[in-house]
């Protein structure tokens, strides 16, 4: 009897904790590790909470997890991990990121993946899902599965949402106060910056529509002939989860259906380090400089003179330098100082949590720099492409980083390193910014889980939607009302003008008649 009561109590507790278990489909077509990492944290946590999770993506789990199933896309696209060279970056540039979104991550991605056997089988599947999670970073193509399975869906953004993502939940994007990440403008913009930001918003919004969404529509209908307009489908999202947080990425107008979960990939507590790394860090009495350009960019492919300048600066420091790099990619004959240790892969989040880490030399990727902010480590930023310039400039304005471009490395890198190591203000400010970033009622992952399950419990949560969801863009911005008011005012002025003109003419006619009569007499 006691055992029976105990079992019932456990079942009741689990039911209260997890609620109704749902079937969840995750579709993540991008093969960039930085796009996958935030989503991975949420999907795995949902599986641990008892939901049945099926994931379509390029990074299948190496070890099984209960309630978690992979539909692997690994090998269907060229590998995009640790293979972005500096020469590729220089060809693309910062604004070139928009064209990458519309091509490699847009209609081209749609075309390459939608006809794969994995996604063809999914298109023919009779499974039923309670929720779909997906990222529409470069294309709305995969929203076709939302239409097929007739399930509510949540949009995932690995950074501050682009305009077309914000539109999914009718979130206002004001060019006057919301600088686009590709511009790297500050929150408080002057006239010319606001003008440039406005034009960039227009360019990217319509560029995405005509260069990605329209061709993706044609490709999607090859597999799903009855799929509705992708633009309309994109505006049916129940929720937008973005890897941003106002204390770090800036305060902006929002709506209930937009939830910020910046730092969702960061575990609250650091994991134990491998013994060899732990020993290195513990024995570095003068501190450690941690150097990493993330999961994509190969820092060892920088120009030889830049590498030599950095290594020379490191050689004159008493600190240990731990560098995520593959020595096989170094230029021939490059001399690496004894205090510089290189490894192909390093547990970054856990390393940054070590008290001996003094500075983080980074390319400015959002995930890595959020880890730096979380652990209150000052940063020396060398931005390469995409949002990295905007991220580093943001941290410079907040007083937790110094920026040196690749072209400035030979002249400024060593001075910048000395400044950030010797000036305690950077560390003190980093601690304040870190506290603001971590001061929340729930962890980012707990917040994401709550709102995901909220959408499940409320069958898509239509109560989150604003009335603007059912209006066209020109109606949202009142262009039709403004045009009507202008037309009415102009019509009124025209009537007044014509009336005055007629009255003026009528007043002049008798005078002319009288003058004629006088002449006749």
Short description:
The protein has helices at 2-18, 33-48, 86-92, 96-114, 117-124, 144-149, 163-166, 191-223, 230-234, 246-249, 275-283, 304-315, 348-352, 366-374, 388-397, 409-422, 424-438, 444-457, 473-476, 479-520, and strands at residues 23-27, 52-57, 68-72, 131-134, 153-157, 239-242, 258-260, 288-292, 320-324, 340-343, 357-362, 379-381, 401-403. The protein has 521 residues and is of the alpha/beta class.
CATH class of the largest domain: Alpha Beta
How many domain modules? 2
Measured as a percent range, the helix fraction is 40-55%
* Arithmetic mean of pLDDT: 89
Report how far the terminal alpha carbons are from each other. Answer: 131 Å
Number of helices: 20
Q: Flag low-confidence runs.
A: 4-18
Beta strands, count: 13
Structural class: alpha/beta
> Which architecture of the largest domain per CATH?
3-Layer(aba) Sandwich
CATH superfamily of the largest domain: Glycogen Phosphorylase B
Which percent band covers the strand fraction? 5-15%
The CATH topology of the largest domain is given as Rossmann fold
Which overall shape is indicated by the principal axes computed on the Cα atoms?
Answer: globular
Q: Which sheet architecture does the biggest sheet show?
A: 7 strands, parallel
Biggest sheet: strands side by side, in what order?
Answer: 3-2-1-4-5-6-7
Helices and strands, with pairings:
Layout: H1 2-18, E1 23-27, H2 33-48, E2 52-57, E3 68-72, H3 86-92, H4 96-114, H5 117-124, E4 131-134, H6 144-149, E5 153-157, H7 163-166, H8 191-223, H9 230-234, E6 239-242, H10 246-249, E7 258-260, H11 275-283, E8 288-292, H12 304-315, E9 320-324, E10 340-343, H13 348-352, E11 357-362, H14 366-374, E12 379-381, H15 388-397, E13 401-403, H16 409-422, H17 424-438, H18 444-457, H19 473-476, H20 479-520
Parallel strand pairs: 1-2, 1-4, 2-3, 4-5, 5-6, 6-7, 8-9, 8-11, 9-10, 11-12, 12-13
